[in-house]
Amino acid sequence: MQTLDVYKKEEGKIWQRKPSPSPEEGLIVCVSHSTSSAFSLQGRNIRFLRTAFNTTGEAFAAGDHQGNIFVFDLAKNRFSLIHKTGTPCTAISFCLRRKNEVLVALADNSLRCYDTESHELVSWMRGNDSSIHSISVHASGRYALTSSNSVAQLWDLDTFSRKRTLNGAQTVGIQQVLYLPLSNTIVTCFKDDSLFVWDSETLKCKFQLPVPPEEAKQSHYRALATPRDGRLLVAGGRSRFLHVWSLENKRLLHVIQLPARVRLVRQLDFISNSFDGGTSQTLAVLSQDGILRFIDIHACKQLFEIGGADEMINNFSISSNGRYVAAVMDNGNINVYSVPALSQHFTKPPPPLVKTVWEERPLSRQGGKSGQSLASAMTKVGGTPKRNKTKSPARSRQNADVSASWTSPDSGLESELPEGLNQARLKSILQGYGEYPAKYRMFIWRSLLKLPENHAAYSSLVDKGTHNAFARLHEEYPIKSRKLLRVLQRSLSALAHWSAIFGEVDYLALLSFPFVKLFQNNQLICFEMIATILINWCQHWFEFFPNPPVNILGMVENVLVHHDKRLMQHFVSCNVTSQMYAWPLIQTLLSEVLTKDEWLRAWDNIFSNHPSFLLFVVVAYVIVSRKVLLQCTRKEDFEYFFHNRNAVEVGTVIREAYRLQDSTPAEVNPKRMLEPFIPLTRGQYPIFNKYPKFIVDYQVQERERIRQDEVEYLRQRQLAQEMKEVASQRQQEEEAFYRQQELMVDAENQRRRMIGQEEQKLGDQRSRLQAMKREIHLRELQLLDAVRRRFMHHQQTLKETELQRLDDEIERKALLREQETRHAIEDAEIKGLELQAQKEMLQQDLIRDDLQGSFKQRAEQTIQRKQQELEGQLFRRTMDAVQEVDIDSQRISQEELAKAQQQHACVSMEGEVELRSRMDDLHRELNDVKVAQHVLENKERETEIQSLVHELRNKENDEVAKKESELRQQKALAAEEERRRMNLLNALSRDHTTTDDSESFSRLRDIRQVPDEPRRPLSAIQPSNTESSSITTDSSGTPITSHEPSLERQRGTFEKRELELMAEVRDLRKRLALRRQQRPPDYMGNTQQ
């Protein structure tokens, strides 16, 4: 463990060398902030209050009681001081979007955001009525939830503004508010144990988790936790029960009962793993006893724990990758733990046990691993290793003996083990490698011993407390690690409560300590491991209690005599008994003479064989060391040898043990005297009463009597001490009373002398005081006169100032009045100019209307004249067509008629274009007038404008009436002219009865039926004739008329065509008249409206 003190440091390294956390404690570094003091040697420790890891899980921020914010980067081995706020920190959290920003809640009810790189304040958010105790950030990093005792608020981290406040929480009270990971869901827990789930986008309640019934052991919730996938919710509070909810099914899954020592759950959090897909099952639970327990919520099993009575934890935070735990301790320090180091003994099922044997791997002395035996083991699991062809006959024979010993059926262990393991395969691995894989050793041991894991039975033993026999274990075994000592004391007490004999065995701590050190993070496995060893490998140990097991030592002595008589004779000659060379090895289970790796390797073989194999290992250890032992002659040398580590290779000892086991005859073989392996029963532990009960009971009674005598002696000694203290106190009080009386007499005399002196001084002071009063009275009068004069002067100054202010006000108002008058005159002149301009514009509009009216009259006259000319041309063409018969004159007439029609079409088009341009001008003028309408603000010229408008309207009405009368007259004249022309044409049609007439009419019809000439609107005057008569010509060019149509029919056709032509002309005139009448509305009329 390494320590770091950040006092007067703004940055630096966290550790000087790379830490290697031990599996017992898992502690990486301890961070403190201590200050030196001039009055004490130890100084004062500034307590850290809160911690929080960033998104990568490699750095965490911490805030202390003085408002110092630090960031510790474990990956870069650097720390830095971010800011000194001067206010204690109440909550801290990193932003998820901007990795370099951290949110800090302070005791002044404010929420601040700091940049960890630039060490600057990013934002200061206020608005809380009480201090914030938790911060939860949305997965997107855009929003953050803060909760206090009475209010929960939603903050926008893009604008650092408050977005929403949870209403109604002030009356009930809030326990915790948090975002579910990777979702838009908010979970709120109130003080009435109500759990609500909200949608973070709409902020509407999705559902409420029902309050658990009475049989579910309802608790007052104080802490919530959810795994990364957000499917579960774990709630805990003021009881030792944890409620596990399913947020998908909205129901309570099950209730987890914590140990009886837990009365209150302070904090909950899940350990994330990169390979679990968010379905974390390991829950960290911090209770009121300051112990952080890690529990499997599915198996309801405690994995390991940190903290304790001496190192209580106040709060903690776990990194997102599940590698570190930053715990704020009760003394104000921060302990950073390594989760992989703590959980390395929590074994898992192993992968396939096949391993490849490299050909170039060197052969070691310890590996009596023969090529033949290893090949047989690999053949069982499907492998085919290469064999070493050059072997000595002795080694081949030795390997054959070892292989035969492995296949013996009476080893006391079944071939099939729990957890899917196979005894034969495990033996093949042990035979080939000499030991089990270190990664899976604990799991293999648990499987070989078939530990039942009786949680309830073990809890009942632990709940009985510390046994009296081990209450002072720390005095006898001063272990440096408090946690290890506590686990050892708890395991020994549980064994003593299980069977009374274990409370009297003085070497039980030596026997149990190696297993306690291995399984200190899983105390249940540790207890059951020791109990299994006591039942199987410690058979007949306690039959001669309190003496050593003479029967077991006799077995060891018989085996030694059979295999090495010379060494046994040497022991006898040196007066060395089995209690000196065998019992020290047996009672410590070889832990004193072997290193950790050697001891683990030896017990791999012991657990895999019959319980008698332990005795063969002891004898083998003695035989292997025979050369050294034969040279020893003093008992002190023998004692030192069997109580200390020696240069003995454990592989040789194990091979010798197998040789002894195979070569020992049945009459001296310990296997005949010892029972085979019997695992612990499930549910309850078996009864252990194989010991002289009367001796144990007598020792218990004697120990109880001695304890009672000690208690009585201590009580008597305490009573005597109290009486002695009372007597000495009474004597001291009497002496103090007499000294006080003497002091009081002396003080009385002193006070009398002082009173006389004071009376004399009082007379002198009275005389001086009288003179002083007179002087003060005179000074008071002077001061009153000075104050009166100063007050009068001040009044005069105030009046002068007031007069000056009034003069300035009058001058300012006069200037303001002049400015307003000047501005009013300027506005009146501007308005007059505007009205004059409007008047001129209206006059120009009237003149423009007059000009447009005269222009329209001229245009109408021009159109009428052109129409008359066209009609005259039409009439002349008709007369020419009647009179002229030859083809040349007819062609000329046709060409002239086409030209006239084209000319008429051009004139009509120009008239339409002119009308459209006039309409556009009128619209534009109308828009201009509408714009000018909003500028008319002078009310004085309104009557004049209205009179002009009335005059213009009357004039327009008169012109309209005049034009309508003229139009009626023109229509009457046109009708009269039409009747006259019709009479004339009828007279002409009656005079022509010859064939030439039909030819002329046919030619005229052909002229009118030209389709390619675009003559509009006069093209409509000439409709197509579908019933024309055919004209043929002979070879000489003389026209030949058909005899089918008659003359009367041709005359009727001509009259019909002439009537259609006159109807079209009248329609054209009507349309022109309507166009002239459809003038735009009067803009002055709109102005009035």
From TrEMBL:
Basic and acidic residues compositional bias, start-end: 989-1016, 1045-1055
Taxonomy, superkingdom: Eukaryota
Keyword Secreted: no
Coiled coil: 716-775, 825-876
GO biological process, one term: cilium assembly
GO molecular function, one term: molecular adaptor activity
Compositional bias (Polar residues): 395-410, 1021-1044
Chain residue ranges for the region called Disordered: 362-417, 985-1055
A GO CC term attached to the entry: centriolar satellite
Keyword entries, A-Z: Cell projection, Cilium biogenesis/degradation, Coiled coil, Cytoplasm, Cytoskeleton, Repeat, WD repeat
Subcellular localization: Cytoplasm, Cytoskeleton, Cilium basal body; Cytoplasm, Cytoskeleton, Microtubule organizing center, Centrosome, Centriolar satellite
Residue ranges constituting the Rab-GAP TBC domain according to the UniProt record: 435-610
Gene3D superfamilies xref list: Ypt/Rab-GAP domain of gyp1p, domain 3 (1.10.472.80), YVTN repeat-like/Quinoprotein amine dehydrogenase (2.130.10.10)
Pfam families: RabGAP-TBC (PF00566)
Cross-referenced PANTHER family: TBC1 DOMAIN FAMILY MEMBER 31, WD REPEAT CONTAINING PROTEIN 3 WDR3
Function noted in UniProt: Molecular adapter which is involved in cilium biogenesis. Part of a functional complex including OFD1 a centriolar protein involved in cilium assembly. Could regulate the cAMP-dependent phosphorylation of OFD1, and its subsequent ubiquitination by PJA2 which ultimately leads to its proteasomal degradation.
Descriptive protein name: TBC1 domain family member 31
Naturally occurring in which organism (per UniProt): Desmophyllum pertusum
